[in-house]
Specification:
0% strand; elongated; DUF2281 domain-containing protein; mainly alpha
Length: 68
């Protein structure tokens, strides 16, 4: 038997590993402090933007060369 360390960067990958464990193909050793990153839900950032300046839609001077 071979032991491999894996860094899980997607919750879908974790679910695939759980499925393999259910088929008795692999055995997962999960530390107690592991927190699985979940896919963000729609609207998760709705409270992050507190204020938008009045000139938000104004053209930026950095892009004046590209404007008609």
């Amino acid at each position: 038997m071979e032991t491999v360390t894996v860094e899980i960067i997607n919750s879908k990958a974790y679910r695939l590993l759980e499925d393999l464990e259910a088929l008795n193909v692999i055995r997962l050793h999960k530390p107690d402090s592991v927190k699985i990153a979940e896919t963000p839900e729609f609207g998760f950032a709705k409270d992050m933007i507190k204020r938008i300046d009045d000139d938000f839609n104004e053209p930026l001077s950095e892009f004046s060369d590209y404007m008609p």
